[in-house]
Amino acid sequence: MLKVLKQLHLPLWLLLSCVLATLWVLLSPEAGLGRVSRLTNSWSDSTEDSSPEHVCNCSGILQGDVEALEQAKLLTITKEFHQRIHIPDESYVRATQDCRCVDIWRVHEFCSILNFFSSHFIYRNFKLKRKYNTQPLSEEEEDLPLAYSIVVHQKVQSFERLLRSIYTPQNLYCIHVDKQAAASVTAAISAIASCFPNVFMVSRREEVVYASWSRVQADLNCMAHLYNVSSQWKYFINLCGQDFPLKTNLETVRMLRSLWGGNSLESEQMPSGKKHRVTVVHKIVNRAMEKTKEAKTPPPFNLPILSGSAYMVVSRGFIHSVLTDSRIQALMDWAKDTYSPDEFLWATIQRIPGVPGSNWPNSKYDMSDVNAIARLVKWEHHEGSQGSLQAVYPLCHGRHVRSVCVYGAGDLHWMIQQHHLFANKFDTDTDPIAIYCLEKYLRQKALADVH
Q: Is the dihedral of CA 414, 420, 421, 425 positive or negative?
């Protein structure tokens, strides 16, 4: 042991701290083997029993029960409830300290027996406390690993609950934290990522400006990183910190298999009201996009520019084309001075002949966000009361941000009946009960599918 310590160029106090942490995990009745066993057996619980949300009637909320919804609404409007449920960024840094001890040991190949202890006890401690799924639940899921890009700029608590809801050890997760994010946000998310061998921070971060090319570049950075890290994953899904799943991982895998190598994302004719976005040059002025009087040149190869969204579910082959196809490279160079290129770029690539999983550019192949499985979004101007012939979906039960519904618990009954894989937007500050009940529903469903 002394020989090993001498070979390490690390402060002795740091090494001893990690050793003591290991011994504490092994020997403590609250954190040792018994604790691990208890936490493993309680994986079916979506959150800790002490969680303030557990008093809600999630079963009634999911069924649209008026009384259950009213009780939840009364709870969420109280200041005391939000104070109890809020988790400061610094808490995540403290809760994941044991993970960083493990990183030190692994980087320096520190003693095989300590590596064994760390991987089996300390390394899993944060995962177990937060009830992460630590093993594939079926061979079917294990045989189709997925790659995720998650772009975040705030609200660590929402991000961590999203990660927990989609985490499985066979998938890969690339996290892009905005360069402008608060230091506490970056530190907390980096600390969380350090607890998982398949969750990593992207190697190159961007300063994301709303509606600019930087939003696209953030996803591109993760695409390249994920593509180079592993050749095993089959599908790519991009998310933001305010997304949440509507399907279990098994349901997602089965839906992706049913695509037979195809992609699913919004891609339809560009509305006349949005054409200025791609016909006039836009520039960043004081951290905001502004339209100039300079006309854009036509797109390369006379490609028809389609309308879509920033979110997609695409095959590995699609990502390969994005990274290597000269036509797509030319299109991306052309798009860098347009407005909100994320809302047409992927939609346009999906209709380029020869791109794996793509469709023909003919309008008969147009796909709306309602029909694509990538994302469920309620736009304010498409909402309406029940029975309305003009409405696309029912009224929002939360609040609107930039004309998009931030969901409330009252939206869940309608939401879980939809075919989409994910929904946007959720916010723990707006309605944490919506996330709590949806997470609980998905976990119970995942376990029911296994049994």
A: negative
- DSSP secondary-structure letter at 382? G
How many residues are there in the chain?
451
What token pair was written down for 237? 């899904």
Do 205 and 176 touch, CB atoms closer than 8 A?
A: yes
CB-based contact 265:367 (threshold 8 Å)? yes
Output 194-198 pairs: Cβ under 8 A, ≥24 positions apart: 194/96, 194/99, 194/100, 194/103, 195/96, 195/99, 195/123, 195/126, 195/127, 196/127, 196/167, 198/169, 198/170, 198/171, 198/172, 198/173
3-state secondary structure of 201: strand
Both tokens of 355, joined, read 């791109």
Selection from 50, 73, 144, 130 nearest residue 98 by Cα: 130
Nearest to 411 by CA among 425, 397, 400: 397
Contact indicator for 441, 416 with CB cutoff of 8 Å: yes
- Give dist(CA 258, CA 357) in Å, integer: 12
- pTM of model > 0.85: yes
Q: Assign 16 a pLDDT band (cuts: 50, 70, 90).
A: low
Tens-place pLDDT, residues 163-206: 999 999 999 999 999 999 999 999 999 999 999 999 999 999 99
Backbone angles phi, psi at 147, to 5 degrees: -120, 130
Of 343, 380, 383, 439, the catalytic one is 343
Neighbours of 317 (CB within 10 A): 15
What does 239-252 look like in DSSP terms, one character per residue?
EETTEEESS-HHHH
CA distance between the termini of the chain: 46
55: its two tokens: 């008093």
Distance CA 251, CA 256 (A): 9
The C-alpha atoms of residue 42 and residue 55 are separated, in whole angstroms, by 18
238 touches 419 (CB < 8 A): no
**In the block, which residue shows the tokens 């975040």?**
152
Domains with residue ranges and CATH for the chain: 52-85+376-419+421-451 (no CATH), 139-374 (3.90.550)
Identify whether 160 is a catalytic site residue. no
Helix (H) or strand (E) holding 294: strand 289-295
Round to whole Å and give the CA distance between 243 and 312.
Answer: 13
300 close to 379: Cβ distance less than 8 angstroms: no
Nearest-angstrom CA–CA distance, 130 and 119: 17
